[in-house]
Amino acid sequence: VSSEKYQVAIIMGSDSDMPIMNEAAKVLDALDISYRAFISSAHRTPKKTACIVQDAEQNGAEVIIAGAGLAAHLPGVIAALTVIPVIGVPIKAGALNGVDALYSIVQMPPGIPVATVAINGGKNAGVLAAQILAAKYPVVKEHLLRMRKKAAEDVVNKDVKLAQLGMAQYIKEMQ
Ligand code: RP5
Q1: CA distance 127 to 74
Q2: CA 21 to CA 144: how far, in whole Å?
Q3: Residue whose C-alpha is closest to residue 129's, from 55, 21, 16
Q4: Angle at Cα 89 formed by Cα 83 and Cα 95, nearest 5°?
Q5: Mean pLDDT for the stretch of residues 29-53
Q6: Facing residues of 89 across strands?
Q7: From the CA of 121, how far away is ligand 1's center (Å)?
Q8: Quick check: 1 pLDDT over 70?
Q9: Tell me, what DSSP letter sits at residue 136?
Q10: Nearest Cα to 37, choosing from 16, 6, 58?
Q11: pLDDT per residue over 127-152, tens digit each?
Q12: CA 113 to ligand 1 center in whole angstroms
């Protein structure tokens, strides 16, 4: 157990999950939210997973983002060990392309929820974690509102560009 405080724990089942989980980390970085990232597997290192949850509790984590692929039990096992809200990210891997992980993560028994985002939905996991924190931290809420405004402006600007260029030229410029 470390002693550095952080607001969010990001836990992934394998380093192969990292590119997707990094999308969550990027959102937290952009919103100035502190986090610590871990690799641990519900199946391969169950005891280490329990120690990481203990680390998160002791160091003040207020949200946990957990991602795994295949028979993805990591988010559910973590949720069983704590009442810190857990956001689950089903990772696309293997023959079933993430549908196995989605079902494993979303179909939790009553009483032990995991807030499940889309397959490979790392970015939304970061945004949802921030929204949970925004209920307590006004500065996070301000950052989120600014991010939403920018996303809306981007759509408006794209529509203006489409009106100016027409579709054929717009697509050419996208390539
Ligand atoms: C899961 O198995 C991991 O979360 C990962 O998505 C998948 C494959 O793991 P590796 O074989 O790449 O380590 O436990």
Answers
A1: 20
A2: 19
A3: 21
A4: 135
A5: 98
A6: 67
A7: 16
A8: no
A9: T
A10: 6
A11: 999 999 999 999 999 999 999 999 99
A12: 22
Tens of pLDDT, residues 11-35: 999 999 999 999 999 999 999 999 9
Which atom of ligand 1 sits closest to the CA of residue 69?
A: 6
Q: Does the pLDDT at position 97 exceed 90? A: yes
Residue 111: both structure tokens together: 């009483």
Which amino acid is present at 110? P
Taking each continuous run of H as one helix and of E as one strand, the counts in the chain are: 7, 5
Ligand 1 pocket residues where CB is under 6 Å:
13-14, 16-17, 41, 68-70, 91, 93
* Reported pTM: 0.95
Residue of 17, 38, 44, 77 to test ligand 1 pocket, by largest number of atoms within 8 Å of CB:
17
Whether the CB-CB separation of 122 and 23 falls below 8 Å is answered with yes
Ligand 1 atom 12 nearest Cα: 16
